[in-house]
Amino acid sequence: xxxxxxxxxxxxxxxxxxxxxxxxxxxxxxxxxxxxxxxxxxxxxxxxxxxxxxxxxxxxxxxxxxxxxxxxxxxxxxxxxxxxxxxxxxxxxxxxxxxxxxxxxxxxxxxxxxxxxxxxxxxxxxxxxxxxxxxxxxxxxxxxxxxxxxxxxxxxxxxxxxxxxxxxxxxxxxxxxxxxxxxxxxxxxxxxxxxxxxxxxxxxxxxxxxxxxxxxxxxxxxxxxxxxxxxxxxxxxxxxxxxxxxxxxxxxxxxxxxxxxxxxxxxxxxxxxxxxxxxxxxxxxxxxxxxxxxxxxxxxxxxxxxxxxxxxxxxxxxxxxxxxxxxxxxxxxxxxxxxxxxxxxxxxxxxxxxxxxxxxxxxxxxxxxxxxxxxxxxxxxxxxxxxxxxxxxxxxxxxxxxxxxxxxxxxxxxxxxxxxxxxxxxxxxxxxxxxxxxxxxxxxxxxxxxxxxxxxxxxxxxxxxxxxxxxxxxxxxxxxxxxxxxxxxxxxxxxxxxxxxxxxxxxxxxxxxxxxxxxxxxxxxxxxxxxxxxxxxxxxxxxxxxxxxxxxxxxxxxxxxxxxxxxxxxxxxxxxxxxxxxxxxxxxxxxxxxxxxxxxxxxxxxxxxxxxxxxxxxxxxxxxxxxxxxxxxxxxxxxxxxxxxxxxxxxxxxxxxxxxxxxxxxxxxxxxxxxxxxxxxxxxxxxxxxxxxxxxxxxxxxxxxxxxxxxxxx
Amino acid sequence: xxxxxxxxxxxxxxxxxxxxxxxxxxxxxxxxxxxxxxxxxxxxxxxxxxxxxxxxxxxxxxxxxxxxxxxxxxxxxxxxxxxxxxxxxxxxxxxxxxxxxxxxxxxxxxxxxxxxxxxxxxxxxxxxxxxxxxxxxxxxxxxxxxxxxxxxxxxxxxxxxxxxxxxxxxxxxxxxxxxxxxxxxxxxxxxxxxxxxxxxxxxxxxxxxxxxxxxxxxxxxxxxxxxxxxxxxxxxxxxxxxxxxxxxxxxxxxxxxxxxxxxxxxxxxxxxxxxxxxxxxxxxxxxxxxxxxxxxxxxxxxxxxxxxxxxxxxxxxxxxxxxxxxxxxxxxxxxxxxxxxxxxxxxxxxxxxxxxxxxxxxxxxxxxxxxxxxxxxxxxxxxxxxxxxxxxxxxxxxxxxxxxxxxxxxxxxxxxxxxxxxxxxxxxxxxxxxxxxxxxxxxxxxxxxxxxxxxxxxxxxxxxxxxxxxxxxxxxxxxxxxxxxxxxxxxxxxxxxxxxxxxxxxxxxxxxxxxxxxxxxxxxxxxxxxxxxxxxxxxxxxxxxxxxxxxxxxxxxxxxxxxxxxxxxxxxxxxxxxxxxxxxxxxxxxxxxxxxxxxxxxxxxxxxxxxxxxxxxxxxxxxxxxxxxxxxxxxxxxxxxxxxxxxxxxxxxxxxxxxxxxxxxxxxxxxxxxxxxxxxxxxxxxxxxxxxxxxxxxxxxxxxxxxxxxxxxx
Lengths: 714, 714
Description:
The structure is a homodimer of 714-residue chains.
Chain A: H1 2-18, E1 22-26, H2 35-45, E2 51-55, E3 61-62, E4 65-66, E5 80-83, H3 87-99, E6 104-107, H4 117-133, E7 136-138, E8 144-147, E9 152-154, H5 158-161, E10 171-175, H6 178-190, E11 197-200, H7 209-218, E12 224-229, H8 235-248, E13 252-256, H9 270-274, H10 277-288, E14 291-293, H11 296-306, E15 316-321, H12 324-336, E16 340-341, H13 346-353, E17 366-367, H14 369-374, H15 381-387, E18 395-398, H16 410-420, E19 425-428, H17 442-447, H18 459-478, H19 503-512, E20 520-523, H20 526-536, E21 540-545, E22 558-562, H21 565-582, E23 590-595, E24 601-610, E25 614-621, H22 624-627, E26 632-636, H23 641-649, H24 655-658, H25 668-684, E27 689-699, E28 704-706, E29 709-713
Parallel strand pairs in A: 1-2, 1-5, 5-6, 6-7, 10-11, 10-12, 12-13, 13-14, 15-16, 15-17, 15-18, 18-19
Antiparallel strand pairs in A: 3-4, 8-9, 8-11, 20-23, 21-22, 21-23, 24-25, 24-27, 25-26, 27-28, 27-29
Helix pairs in contact in A: 1-7, 3-4, 7-8, 11-18, 20-21, 23-25
C-alpha cells in the first residue's frame, strides 16, 4: 500500500517537530512583554522534557538558562527552532538553522501571503530555504504548536499556555485560524478535553493542514484527528487520508467554515452554476467519511463520545429524564438530528413500571419526575436495569444525573457496572447552568468510559454524527474495490481545445464511453432530414446543431413531435432560418434529426471543475426539480459505486426514482452505470474536459438515454 | 374593541394573584424540610411587601409571624392563599378560602389530571369550588408563581428562591412544565435577565397559559410575554391576544415543544395526512406574529435584544471581529438564519481602511485581528465611526469586545455615544468560554440600551427572529381589515351528516361559494354520457361518481382525453363495470362527464380539523410536489388576505407559480380568492364540515378551476 511508504517518510520528518529532544528559541528576550520571553517561559512552565537553548545576541543567561549568540553555537543537535523574530530577521535565522542542521521550525512572524503580492514572494523565499536545507516549518503567521503530552508549548499565546490540562489527551487538533483555534482549545479544555496536539498551521508555506492530519493518523497515541478548516490545498491527499482513517477507525472530524461566502460563480453549464463550493465540500465529506462538525462544539462533543470506545449499534434512543419538559425537548432534538425515539415494548415498560413511582412515566422519554432529581436519586438506576437488556434499544441518554453521587456512592458504582456490561451506548448530559451542571460523579463516569457532555455542547447532534460515522465505517468495509470494466475508445481527437462542443460532438464522446444517447443524425438539407427521419421512424425531433448555440430553445431552434415528411421539411426550414436570424455568425453544422423519446423520468448528470477539488460530479432530477428545488448532490471524482448510490439516495425527491403515483421504479442500475462512466471519462481526460452537462437523461423502467449533452473543453 | 372589556375583567381578577396585599400560607410547617416551611421562608427572604399569615393548627408563631388556626381567623382580607397541603386537604382548604372571601390561590398538590381518570374527576371538583366561590387558582401540580418586583415568591422551589435578581425585570414567563421552567428561569438570571413574572400553570384547572399571557400584555411594566408551551387549550384566545400584542408592539415569544411527537394520524383526506400537529403550530405562529423560540436560549436572547428598545431596519449585517476565523463562522451563522452579510461600499471601506492597520481587513466581516483583542482595543471604535453613517447597514455585530473597558474608559463612553446616536441595531457578543466571556463594560453597555448576549445563547438566531418580528409588526399595520365580500348560497341541505360526499356533491358546495369547478354532469347511461359530452365539447373526461369511491384511480374509474361519441360509450361501460367489480356494494350515482381541462399548474387546497386549532387550511403545489416533497403550508382558519399571500410565498416551489422555463406566471390573485372562499366556507359550516380536499386545482395565467374535490362531513 502506497500510503504506508508515505507514512514512514512523513512521520520521520515531522517527529522532530512534535517530539524534539532539543529546542532553540531564536529571538529570546529579557523583556517580559516580548513574545521571545513569553515563548521561553511557556516551555519552562509547561515542563518541557528536552533541552532548551535560548538564542540571544548578548545575554548570558535568561531564566537560568545559558544563552547562545547564534543557533550555530548550540552544542546539541537542535530538532526544533522556534523563531520569535520579526519578518525582517526570519530568512537570516532560517538559513542559520539550515546551516546548523536544524530539522524543523516554527515561524510566528506575519506579513506573508496574507498581505498580498509582496508577501507571497517573501513566503516563496521561505519555502525555497526550507527546500534547500531540508527543513520543515510550521507557519508563518501562526500561533504555534503544542504537544501537551511532553510539555512542548511551542507558542507565546497566553490563551494556550495558561489553560489547565486534563488527564486524557488523545484527540489532536489542527487549525487554519489561530485565534479561533485558541478559543476552541480553551473551550475543549473547559469541557475536560485537552488536545494532545494543537497545531496552528498559519499560511502553510510548507507543512499544511492535511500533513498534520496525516501525522495524527499515524501517531499511535492519537484516537481522533480533528481540525478547523477554511480551505484545503491538497484535497487529493486528504481524500487518501480519509480512506486510510476509515480503515483504521480513527475518525477525522473537521469544522469547515465559509458556508455562506462561496458566492455565485460564472459558469457556462447548468452543473457549474449549481455547484456552490460548500455543497462540494459537503459531498466530499460524505463520500470520504470525514465527520463534518457544524460548530466547534461538535469537535468537543464528538471526541468525548468517540473516546468512550463504544459505538451506537443503531438509532433507537431512549431518554431518561427527571423533568417531563426537558424529556420532550431532548426527544425533539434527537428526532431533528435523525435519532429515533422508539416506543418501548410492553415487556420493558412493565419492568420499569414495577420499579418507579406511579406518578412517574415509563414511556419513552422516561420521566422519573423531580422526585428523582431531589429526594430519590436511586430512581435513575431503575430504568437502566431493564434497558440494558432491551434488544430494541441502541442508545440511552440521561438528560439529567444525580448531582450528589460520587465514586463512593454504591448506586453510582452499580450504574457504572450496568453500563460497562452493556452493548448500549450510554450518554450522560445535563441542562447547562453555570456552576450547576456538573454532577460530582463525572470523573468516575469518564474513567469508566461513560461519556459526560454538558447540554450546551449539543451532545445529541454529535451522537447522531457518531451513528453516521459508524455507518460510513461499515460501508467502507463492504465497499467493492473496483468498478466494473468500462468499454471505451480514445476520444482525444474529439476534444478540441477551449471549445463549447456541439450537441452531436458531445454525444459522440458519451457514446465512446458506452453511454446510450438518443438516435440522431445531422441533416444539411431538408431532403436529408426527411431521409434520416424515415430511417429513425416518426415522430422525430429536430434541433439546430451548432457549437455557437448552446441554448437552443433561446433561438427557437427545436421542434418536437414532428410527425411526417412534410412537417420535417417545414421544421428544417424554420429552425435553420431562426438560427441564422438570431446568430448570423454562428458556425452551424446542420439540423440534428433525432428519435422522439418516450416519456420517462428526467435526470441530470454533470461535471464541473471545482477550484479546490478539480472535477466534481453532480446528479439530480431534471426539469423543474433542478431549476426550482435545486435538488442535486455532488461528489468529487472519481466516484465509487457506493458514492453513486449515495448520490441518488440523498436526493429529496429520491422517491420519484422509486416510483410514485402508480409508476414503476426506474432503472437505478442504469443511472449508476452512467455515473461511473462519466467518472471514468472525466478521470481519463481531466486535462482536456472542463465541464459536462447531460441534461436531460431519460430513465425508464429499463434503460437510460441521454437526450441532450453539452461538453466544454479546456 | 371587545378585548378591552375582557382586559378590565381579567386584570381585576388576576391582580390579587400577582399583587396581593395579604397572603395566607395554608399548611405552614415548623419542619424545615416541609414545603410549608420552605414557602414561608421564601416569602420572608424574598422581602414580600404585604402581610403574611401562616395558617397552622396549633403553633403560635413560626419565624416570628403570628399563626392562625384557619384562614377564616385571619383578621385581614386575604388576596392570595398558598396551599402547601397534600391532595387530601386541598378541597377542604379551598372551601375555607372561598368562605373567607379569598380571591386567588396557588395549589401545589399533585395527583390530579396528570394521573388519569380519578385525578380528572378530582380536578373537576376543584374547578367547581373555584366557580362556586369566584376564586381563581393557579395549579394544581405546579411549582408556583413569582413576582420579582414585589418579593412575591409564591413557591417552595429552592431552584427559584435562591437565584440572585438582576436589575431589569420586564419580561414575563409562563410555563407548562415546572421543572423546565425553573431551569429556564435560572439560565435567564445567569444571563442578566430576571423575569418579572414567573408562572408555572401546572394542570391549568382554572387559570391557563393564555390567561397569564393576557395578564402580562395588559401589565404596563411588562415589555415581553414569553412562555414554554406543550399544548394550548384555548388557541382562539391566544390568537386574539397575539393580534392585540402586535397592535401594542409587545412580542409574545413561545417555545413550543413536542415537534417530533405529533406522530401520524389516520385521515381520509390528503390534507389530513399531511397536517402534523407541529406544522400547524408553525403556521399558527407565523400567521399571528408570535415569535417561535426554538430553544430556551431564544427566549433569553430575544428578550435581551428586544429590551434594547431598538429594532433592526433590515437584514444587512456587518460583523466586526478580532479573529478572522470567528468572523467567518459568525457570517455563516448569520446567513444560515437569513441575515445578509453585505459587501461594504468602497466609500465605507476606504473610511475604515484609513483608521485600521494594514494587516487588518475592512471587508465584511471586518477583521481587526488579535492586535485589537490584546494590545489595541481602541481599534474596536474605528469601524463603528464609519458604519453608523452607512445607509446600507442595518445591523452591526461585535463578535468580540475589549475585556478591559469599563465605565471609566473614554473609548467605551465614545462607543456608547456612537451607538445611542445611531439608528443601527448594534449587538455585542463573545465566544462562550467559562469565566472569560464577560467583558467588564457589559453593565454600562446594557444600561445604555446596547444588548450584550453571550455566544452560547445563539444571539444571531434571535436577531433574525427580531427582524422577522419587525416584519410581522409592519405587515400587521398594513393588513386590510376585511376580505372582500363573497357571494355564497346556503348549503346546509347538502351537508348530510357524517358522510364522504361524492365528487359532484363536493363540487356543488364549492360552486355555492363562487369557486369555479370543472364543467360536468352526471350521466346514468352511455347515451346520456354522449349527449353531455357533445354539449360540453370534445375531448372530455369520464369519472365514476360515488360517495363510496373516494379514490377513483384505484378502481380504474377514470378515462382522460375521450375524443368522440364512440369512445365515450366505451369508456362509460368500462368505468361502470370496473366500479361494480371492485366495489359491488357501492352506491353509484353515475358517471361524471367533464370538460378536459387544459394544462396549467396543479395546486392543492385543503382543510383538516386539528385537535387544538380546529379547521386548518393547507395550500401546496399538486402532484408529485405534494406527494414527494410535502411542499405545503398551513394556516389556522379563518385566514386573512395576507395569510393567503404568505402561504403561497412560503412554498419551496413558489417559483413555479411565478413562471419558470419560459412559462408565464399564474394567476396568484385567483389562488388567494379560492383560499379566502374556502376560509369563509369552513368558518360558516365548521359544525358540519370535517375535511375538504380540492386536488387538483388548475391555475392558469388567468383564472383557476377545481378539477376534483372531496368533502367529508361531521
